[in-house]
Amino acid sequence: MPTSGYRIVGLDILRTIAILLVMISHSKVYLPESIQKFLSFFLIDGVAVFFVLSGFLIGRIMIKVFSEKISFKQIFNFWARRWLRTLPNYYFILLILIGLEGIVNNKDIGFYIFKYSFFLQNLYYPIDHFFPESWSLAVEEWFYLVCPLLFFLIYSFLRKYSRKKFFFIGIILIILFANIIRVYYYFDLGAKNYFIYDRYFVRQVITRIDAIIYGVLAAWLYVYYPAVFNKNKTGNFILGCIGVLLIHNFEPLYQPFQYLLSFSLTSIAIMLTLPFLNNIKQIKFKALQYSIIHISLVSYSMYLINLSLVTFWILPLFKIQTDIVNFFLFWGITMAISTILYKKLELPFLTLRDKILK
Hints:
358 residues
C-alpha cells in the first residue's frame, strides 16, 4: 500500500510522530506509573503537530489556487476536495458511535446528530463527553470553511494589494482573533482549573483556530520567500524541537503563560521544524520508510477510532484485567481497523475526488 512516489517522507515522519503522540497519550494508562512519568516529558501535544502540518500542506494548495484567481467556484472546489477527504470517514465513525449510544446506552441521540453532523460540538462552548476527540476535526473544518472566505473578502476590498500581501493580512487577522479570544476568556472566566483550561482554551474552535494558520504562514514563506524558509534548516529544526519540549514541560508552572502564550509559541516551534523535514524525500532504510508512510496514510482513521471506538467500546468487550495486554490490544486493533478503513473507505473517496474534481 505505501508508496514514496510524490510524497515528502519528512512530512510523513511528522504526521507519524503526531499520531503516535496521540496514541501514546491515550494508552499510557495501561503502562506502569514509572513509564508514564518518563513518557510525559516527551508527550507534547500531537494535535498541535497535526494542526501546523495540515496548515502547511493545505496552505500551499490555497496559495497556489487562489494566486491565479479567487472566485466562489474555486472556493467550492477547494471545499469539495477537502470534504471528500475528511467527511466520509468522520460520518461513518460518527454513525457507529451514535448508534451505539442510542441502542446500547439508550440515550437520546438527537442532540448528537445535529451538533456533531455540522461540527458544532465545540464552536464556542465546551465539548460533550461523547466523541471527545472530534474537537480537533471541528477546528479544522471550520478553519477550512472560514479561511478561504476571509481571503476572498480581503481580496474583494483590497484589490490593489498583491496576492502576497492579502494572504499575509488574512493570516495576521486569524492569529489576532484567537489570541484576543484567549485573553478575553482568561480574564472573564475567573477561577482557573483543568476543566477550564481543557474545555475552554484547548478544545474550542475559536481558541485554537490559529494553530492551523501558523502552518499556512509557513506555506506563505515557502511560496513567497523560499530563501528565508530554507535558511538554517537544521538549526531551526533543533531549535523547534527543544522549544516545543521546553514549552510542554514548563508551561504549567506559570498560569498566564500556559493560558495566553503557550499555544502560539508551540505552533511556532513546530513551524520551525518544517523546512528541515520538507527536504527529506526518502529514508535509506526502506522498511522503516514503508512503515512511516503506512502509518501516515492511515493516521486519520487511527485518530478517529482509537479513543471513542476502540478504548470506550471495543476493549471492554474483551474484559481483560491485565493492563499490558490491553495496551497491545489497543494498538493492534487500532492499526488493523484503521488500515481497513483507509483501504475500503478513505482511499475510494480520494480516488473519486481526483476523478471528478480538478
